[in-house]
Amino acid sequence: MNESSNTTNRCQADIANILIEALPYIQRFHGTTVVIKYGGNAMIDDALKTSFARDVVMMKLVGINPVVVHGGGPQISQALDRMGKSTEFVDGLRVTDKETMDTVEMVLGGLVNNEIVSLINSQGGKAVGLSGKDGDMIRAEKIIITKAAVNDQPSEIIDIGHVGKVSSVDANVVDAMQSQGFIPVVAPLGVGEDGMTYNINADTVAGALASVLEAEKLVLMTNTPGVLDSSGNLLTGLNSSEIAKLIEDKVIVGGMLPKINCGLDAVNTGVKSAHIIDGRVDHALLLEIFTDTGVGTLISS
Ligand SMILES: Nc1ncnc2c1ncn2[C@@H]1O[C@H](COP(=O)(O)OP(=O)(O)OP(=O)(O)O)[C@@H](O)[C@H]1O
Ligand SMILES: [Mg+2]
């Protein structure tokens, strides 16, 4: 046998090994639901977008039920900029008046949602776009921000408009889609008791859906390797007391706070595992589901 056929045989064996390595994961996760928060860079870079869509389609075809929840902060900012509308943030939350909410709804429920649906469908999946308002899925509650009293200034309640949190979830519409072989793609909008539409952080929508759907996994894709410590090193696993300490020490701040909190809530309410993974890694989702190559932070209770 010459050297090149030896090399070919070795490559074939490697490929076969890689494929068969996925078997235990397919067996374990067949028939389960995995809720994926899709956001950050993975939603902007074209090559990453395609590999994300292919991962989702592959999951569905091997019998796993993916549910995608997406963000869209940068796309909302872009649209508002184009309209010449300035935005103000309070505690990292966008002050959202009625006019801004109309734009948010157009961008999240229209542009971004449809783009992800098309992306998945172009890879052979059957995705259906939903907003949290469809089927009365996500009930929202207005977020009230209270600024504590400082010196002689009294405490203050700041109205940031149509920014909400999840108050309850009715996942019947997701179940109906899944049973017909569709992949639900959910925009993080909800309706309040007051009949108003609310913009909700997509991580928290994904977490709440994962709990109600009794998901096997909650996967939060983001733009960092996972949760980092104060020196910038990846923390591959975190439990509730370690999380509390990192929040207290202000190591976990900003956009990582809703992620870590909803991940912890999810595992405390029956979701088997919650992961914060790097959406900038090609096929991050595939690696997370079908191999034991950890690509981020695993949250446990
Ligand atoms: N300890 C930490 N480790 C890693 N990232 C952290 C930490 N604390 C805060 N962050 C910040 O959290 C950010 C991720 O949250 P962010 O809300 O910006 O992105 P996203 O949720 O993935 O995207 P989007 O909100 O647009 O859907 C990181 O880019 C980082 O700046
Ligand atoms: Mg975020």
Radius of gyration from the alpha-carbon trace, in angstroms: 21 Å
The total strand number stands at 18
Overall structural domain count: 1
User: Which of globular, elongated, flat, extended, rod-shaped describes the shape?
Assistant: globular
Distance between the termini: 55 Å
**Relative strand content:** 15-25%
Per CATH, the architecture is 3-Layer(aba) Sandwich
The first-level CATH class is given as: Alpha Beta
Order of helices and strands: HHEHEHEEHEEEEEHEEEHEEEEHHEHE
Q: Helices, strands, pairings?
A:
Layout: H1 3-21, H2 23-29, E1 33-38, H3 46-61, E2 65-70, H4 73-82, E3 89-90, E4 93-94, H5 98-122, E5 127-131, E6 138-142, E7 145-147, E8 156-158, E9 163-169, H6 172-179, E10 183-187, E11 189-192, E12 197-200, H7 202-212, E13 217-222, E14 227-228, E15 234-235, E16 237-238, H8 240-248, H9 256-268, E17 273-278, H10 284-290, E18 296-299
Parallel strand pairs: 1-2, 1-13, 2-10, 5-10, 6-11, 9-12, 13-17, 16-18
Antiparallel strand pairs: 3-4, 6-9, 7-8, 11-12, 14-15, 17-18
Adenosine-5'-triphosphate binds next to α4, α7 and β14.
